[in-house]
Protein 1
Amino acid sequence: MKKYSVFDCSMIELDRHHSDRKGNLTVVENGMTIPFDVKRVYYLYDVPGGEDRGSHAHKELEQLIIAASGSFTVILDDGNCKRSFFLNRPYHGLYVRPGLWRDLVDFSSGAVAMVLANDYYNKEDYIRNYDGFIEFRQAIDK
Ligand code: TYD
């Protein structure tokens, strides 16, 4: 298993089809726009002010996180470094590699966090305990 750091994660600028005075449209296509094929889409919304989401890592899942509406901050943590990404554009996607802890914080009112994922929901893929996450990271070295 490859051990990714927060510096392996980046913002991907998605294309934007602009129609004058009629709004914009963004497309995501498997294998073309993003580095993985999408098997699952889910979205978080109605997050009350001051509440955080996330607080877990995925062992294998790859994700693209998009602020489909409003804004929020994603804090990624690889056990050594943390990186903060402010998402506030529906045409920006944060590519999150496997094996990283994430916290989603500072949701604006009306924020919608849309997540594209390369696999189906599997609760065995989650690490929800931070100490367990650090042990998981150390085990990748071995
Ligand atoms: P969870 O991943 O804990 O949300 P967050 O990390 O953003 O706080 O998911 C919340 C609940 O939704 C949990 O009971 C599991 C369920 N869930 C699914 O059933 N399928 C899914 O694809 C996801 C992402 C969550």
Note: Residues 61 and 122 are 9 Å apart (CA to CA).
Protein 2
Amino acid sequence: MSEAGIAVELRGARKRYGTKTALDGVDLAVEPGTFCVLLGPSGSGKTTLLRCLAGIERLTEGRIVLGDRLVADGPSHEPPERRNLAMVFQDYALWPHLTAARNVEFAVGRLHLGRGEAAARVEGMLGRVGLAHLAHRYPNELSGGEQQRVALARALVGGTGLLLFDEPLSNLDADLRERMRIEIGTLTRDAGTTAVYITHDQAEAFALADVVGVLRDGRLVQFGPPEEIYARPATPFVARFTGLAGELPVEVLGGAEGHGPSGQPLMPVRPAAGCGDGPERATLLATAMGAAHGIPGAGTVLVRPAGVQLLPAGHPHGHVDAAVLDTAYRGRGYDHALELGPGLQLVGIHDERRWARGDRVRVRLAPAACLLFAGAERLGAATAPTVAALSG
Ligand code: ADP
Ligand code: MG
């Protein structure tokens, strides 16, 4: 095993493919032994970044430092085998003509161990990923999950200071994905290795990460612990990409009325006309993000599903009225979709009880779940026509 993970640093990393800029000046620093997840939609540059870290792809500009070594300075760089790292791919990338044990053994070669010691190490690693009994199978005799375990064992067995993961769970079934996610998280942390893991799946990112970086169009738009990104997204893009119930156009009524748990001002807002129209539109408090404080005027509240509570119609402690559109049994309670106005919805609203489709409810919105951004933010495509109608 590695003694410790290595530090990872990118400075001004840029990658162009012809006229296409895949990485647009990324600065990133990952502390040794940290599990870093880079999260972004398809095409945001995740794979390109990982391949540049691995040395499979050359930077156009910028630098990469791994541990105490400058491994890339513009397009001149060290090849993958000289970077003290191992990689786990989405499609496993095992040698089809080698057994599980031989696939893993391949990665032990770099350690120059005696034959007995190498075999013991391979066996131990296969045991740790729960495959001791399948060591002599070939990849085509293993399920997808088993193949990914072999790939994980292969990545871990060499004791490198850095592990790179390119969406390793995306070809697995849901229940297997969860178990594999736990194994990746625990085995990587046990090894003390630094990890850079890329995914487009927000839940996966938050579950695994010590620190999350959000990528958009080849840029790193936010970097921090998952809790911070959830509570204080830097931009509406980050908020939308990390799980929203929906978006409300609001009017900001005045100055701050106190502060949230992490110090942001709480602003009094009123949902715009046509949005959750009840007998009266209640004032509610929303947490100001970025520069969204001080100035009364139009704003947008991006609503996190946690912190939205369903109350019976007419309940005095609610904020906006809605109709139940849909209800989905989740084992642990129910998720509800609500309609607040024409085309304006809140989805993924959890409750232990099932509210019937068509029920009128009153929705209570906790300040921490209401992320206020300044201006009548361009809303998602699905709700845009409604917003135009509301402001008209
Ligand atoms: P992600 O992994 O986040 O989906 P990628 O890093 O694969 O994104 O791609 C980032 C952008 O760079 C995309 O617009 C993609 O089309 C482009 N791109 C990636 N690889 C190449 C390539 N070899 N040639 C041209 N364009 C590429
Ligand atoms: Mg990719």
Note: Residues 16 and 219 are 13 Å apart (CA to CA).
Protein 3
Amino acid sequence: MIVKISKYVALFSVTILMTIGCSPHHEQSTFANAGPVATSQSNLFYLMFWIAALIFVVVQGALIFAIINFRRREHPIPGSDFKLPDIPPKQVHGNTKLELLWTIIPALILVAIAIPTIQVIYETYEPPENSDPLEIIAIGHQWWWEFRYPDEGIVTANELVVPTNRPINVSLKSQDVIHSFWIPQVAGKQDTMPGNTNQMWFQIDKPGNYSGQCAEFCGVAHARMRFRVVANTTEDFKTWMKMIKTPPKAATSDGYGLFLAHCSMCHTIDSYVENSYEKEITIQNDRWNDWYSNQEEAVRVSAPNLTHLGIRSMLAAGEKDLTRENLIAWITNPSDIKTGTRMQTVANVYKEGSAKLKEHEVEAIADYLLSQKPENWGMLSGKGVDTEEKEEIAWNTPEEHGKYLFINQGCSGCHSLTDEEIVGPGMQGILGRAATRVSGLTAEEYIYNSIVSPNEYLVEGYPENVMPQAFENLSEEELNALISYLKTIE
Ligand code: CUA
């Protein structure tokens, strides 16, 4: 008896817990509709719910009526111990009228449900005509989201910034396995499939943050493959688009070099540069192919674009709020925050016997990333202008300046000063080799070119796009200093 009761108590508690999911106050509730697509989908749900509820009441009512009314009875004979058996009720088997009725009524109910369902399927497939939708490409990766704005040439990750009151037309793709793109308050889920593009649209009425979630089991970190939709007014969205294309203030922290050395093979940081959109897509594909073709030894894998990370609100695909403390914890040991993250298995700083990042180096990288905000962002986001200046250092010799750059620009993360290979070739005896590499180019010219356009001066056996292409932004003075220093490595 006790076992029976506790079973019911357990069932009741689970049911109550599950219905909490229906609360419109939860950030992932499908009952807090934030736009027209969500509204028409939930209207359809309510229509079906009430039809189903009505059918339930009628069928259960008829059942209860029949159970009570036609229950088995015994008829005692007065003054005797004998009872008369019950007389069976009138049988209706083969009643044509009844059979027609219970065939036609369900058929009509199905038609009543099908008409609005098909209507909603069409309505929610493509944005209304002449509505000037914003085109977005959303790509599922294990385990984060990439967002591309093909018409604006913007690439970002895990935070999708959109304008309110304008349809957003989403093309859904996947790089690896099937994921599902779902913003519960905004629109129903739609799968992202490798090798196939799916399509959906949504629109958000009010500015604010909307929680998104991968809704198809896609591996160990599936539950932590979240994202956030940030809906801005038209005006603020325009500002954001302009800002995302604005370079950040020059970085002053040592973190820049460390970032270039250890993180930049997988994470792009400079998508504010003109025409960087196509480049980012190519690099992202190369990263993936490198990893996919040799998962044991790959030095890179496709990873979130980190341009202007400082203005985002979350990290690790929505797992944590973006704070200095969380970012440091994330860089120190990603698996503590998100099990299965590929950063931990691919990045050389986490590998066995590698140069593990020291605490102050992790802090420097975190500070550098947090400093990545568009110049004047403070002013435009109403937080006041930051007036910090870049410090000027006086160098005694170009070689000394070059050595500083070699370390602080991150060269030393991939190039050793001996003939040992870290990621790229060792620098020992570079002068002699450079002189013979391309006929007609002096050693200095060759080194110069291979720094500013690394893909065109690849040493045989090394893949394209591994060396950062950010060094073309160095000044002539800095490049010359770097060359002077490299020439001294014998
Ligand atoms: Cu991606 Cu689940």
Note: DSSP finds 16 helices and 14 strands in the chain.
